[in-house]
Design brief:
Structural class: alpha+beta
Strand content: 15-25%
Region (Disordered): 439-482
Number of helices: 16
Transmembrane segments: 67-86, 92-110, 252-273, 279-307
Keywords: ATP-binding, Cell membrane, Membrane, Metal-binding, Nucleotide-binding, Translocase, Transmembrane, Transmembrane helix
Shape: elongated
Largest sheet: 7 strands, antiparallel
CATH topology of the domain at 14-50 and 125-236: Calcium-transporting ATPase, cytoplasmic transduction domain A
CATH class of the domain at 14-50 and 125-236: Mainly Beta
Distance between the termini: 48 Å
CATH architecture of the domain at 14-50 and 125-236: Distorted Sandwich
GO molecular function: ATP binding; ATP hydrolysis activity; ATPase-coupled monoatomic cation transmembrane transporter activity; metal ion binding; metal ion transmembrane transporter activity; P-type ion transporter activity
GO biological process, one term: inorganic cation transmembrane transport
CATH superfamily of the domain at 14-50 and 125-236: Calcium-transporting ATPase, cytoplasmic transduction domain A
Length: 521
């Protein structure tokens, strides 16, 4: 790729291009990807695929930052003055409070920084890339424009991609666009250059997550050139602002300092005008100023914030800087224009309806009779959600809810798939509003009893006396109430004091023969 081509690539509006045009712009091949030599050259040209961070604060800088608060500066000044006038006790007390305040703040911030660094190390992404016609797993930081990346459910998108293949591919883009529902992806070009990011459905963005399906994409931007990188750049340009508590303490410190100086000046002037020795009045005024400083206030505030940060850790939230605890506590309103932005982004089956009965909650006992046993079997089998390596369920949020409901009822997908493997499927689409899967019954078979002597026919409906194994019974999904088995899922999302309720339905319909069909709507 020449420098001219590189500049053109960075200025390209990728969602407008055909797949072949995008590949030509980046000098790549949809099947073979880049060769390793070209990938290494582009890595040297573009740099690593990583979001640049601001300059990290070292331990000394963290400790020094604890001494920059206005009230702490006032205390230090008071300690110096106390030392000059020979008040050793006050000097020691004030300095002890300053040191304790600094140590508490430093320890909290240092631990938080180390924990965040450890989490980043654990969460380092890898990418399934095609180079020289062979797939390989590499660190996501080594991706370059022109790489071809393979995508599967559960993976994080490692860079900005122009999708070249999408088989029922859906991505969760809440972190980037605020949209809580997974976005179904396509590969055809779009025709509006001004489309917002959420509507560029032939693109996959760095930092989003694949929730369903599989696909293949062409890397078009890495690192700070990605949409996520541009957001990070805007955040870096923002100046650090003081928290409400810091502003109030600084204002209190200034008002207190001015008031104390005015009072001390009046006291000094009055004493001198009365004929008192000026040295005596100066020492008296200084002692009054030192006594008026609330030495314990910064320590009390710091200890309170440290306790708040400790409580936040028990809720799995890391506080990098202590004043942020008070900032969070000062929030009175959260305004959002996207449904689901502030929710757990999870769904849960709460009510189930089958055979003219409505049940709340799922228990193994419920699955003992029909039509519930058939319902939960269909929930598990007509489902593409799967267990991840850490035991978490990976897949579309709706399918994860169905998977969890089936598992709670004792219908374990892996066990059922061993007995009823999927042999065909019709994927979900918006026109049919359902997904259909066909399964074969391979339950353990036992030989039929031997035919009567001299029988020559009989056995299993014309099976004869040839000792062949009998056909297994089909997995039957019976009709109930003329309309099949239907389950309503009510998904509650936490959003302040209110709750949004969405209704979904699932149907299971029977089919004759040695195979069965499970339709999910």
């Amino acid at each position: 790729m020449t420098a001219e081509t590189s500049a053109q690539a960075e200025a390209t509006v990728w969602h407008l291009l055909e797949v072949a045009q995008a590949l030509a712009r980046l000098g790549s091949d949809a099947r073979a990807g880049l060769d390793r030599g070209e990938a290494a050259a582009r890595l040297a040209r573009y740099g690593p695929n990583a979001i640049r961070e601001g300059k990290r604060r070292g331990p000394l800088r963290m400790l020094a930052d604890q001494l920059t608060d206005f009230m702490i500066l006032v205390l230090i000044a008071a300690a110096v003055v106390s030392g000059l006038i020979g008040d050793a006790v006050d000097t020691a007390v004030i300095l002890a409070i300053v040191v304790m305040n600094a140590v508490i703040g430093f320890v909290q911030e240092y631990r938080a920084e180390r924990a965040i660094a450890a989490l980043k190390q654990m969460a380092a992404l890898t990418a399934h890339v095609v180079r020289d016609g062979q797939s390989a797993l590499i660190p996501a930081a080594e991706l370059v424009p022109g790489d071809v990346v393979l995508l599967e459910a559960g993976q994080a998108v490692p860079a900005d991609l122009r999708l070249t293949e999408a088989a029922q591919l859906k991505t969760e883009e809440a972190a980037l666009t605020g949209e809580s529902q997974p976005v179904e992806k396509i590969t055809r070009p779009l025709h509006d250059e001004s489309l917002p990011l959420g509507d560029r459905r032939n693109m996959a963005w760095k930092g989003t997550v694949i929730t369903y399906g599989r696909g293949r994409g062409l890397v078009v931007a890495t690192g700070m050139q990605t949409e996520l990188g541009r957001i990070a750049e805007l955040l870096r340009a923002e100046e650090e602002v003081k928290t409400p508590l810091q502003k109030r303490l600084a204002r209190f410190g200034r008002v207190l300092s001015i008031a104390v100086l005015v009072i001390c000046a009046i006291l000094f002037a009055t004493g001198v005008l009365r004929g008192e020795p000026w040295l005596l009045m100066a020492l008296t005024a200084i002692s009054l100023a030192v006594a008026a400083i609330p030495e314990a206030l910064p320590a009390v505030v710091t200890v309170s914030l440290a306790l708040g940060a400790r409580r936040m850790v028990t809720k799995h939230a890391l506080i990098r800087k202590l004043p942020a605890v008070e900032t969070l506590g000062s929030v009175t309103f959260i305004c959002s224009d996207k449904t689901g932005t502030l929710t757990l982004n999870k769904m849960r089956a709460e009510e189930l309806y089958a055979g003219d009965r409505l049940e709340r909650g799922v228990t193994p006992a419920l699955a003992q009779g029909e039509p519930w046993a058939t319902l939960f079997r269909a929930l598990a089998l007509s489902n593409d959600a799967r267990l991840g390596g850490a035991g978490a369920v990976i897949g579309d949020p709706t399918e994860v809810a169905l998977f969890e409901a089936a598992r709670a009822a004792g219908a374990v997908k892996s066990e059922l798939e061993a007995r009823y493997p999927r042999v065909a499927e019709i994927a979900f689409d918006s026109e049919r509003a359902r997904m259909t899967t066909v399964h074969k019954n391979v339950v353990s078979q036992t030989p039929p009893p031997p035919p009567p002597r001299g029988g020559g026919g009989g056995g299993g409906g014309g099976g004869g006396g040839n000792g062949r194994w009998g056909s297994p019974p089909p997995l039957a999904l019976p009709r109930q109430g003329g309309g099949g088995v239907r389950v309503h899922l009510l998904y509650k999302r936490r959003a302040g004091a209110g709750a949004a309720v969405v209704s979904r339905a699932l149907e299971c319909r029977g089919r004759g023969g040695s195979r069965s069909r499970s339709d999910r709507k």
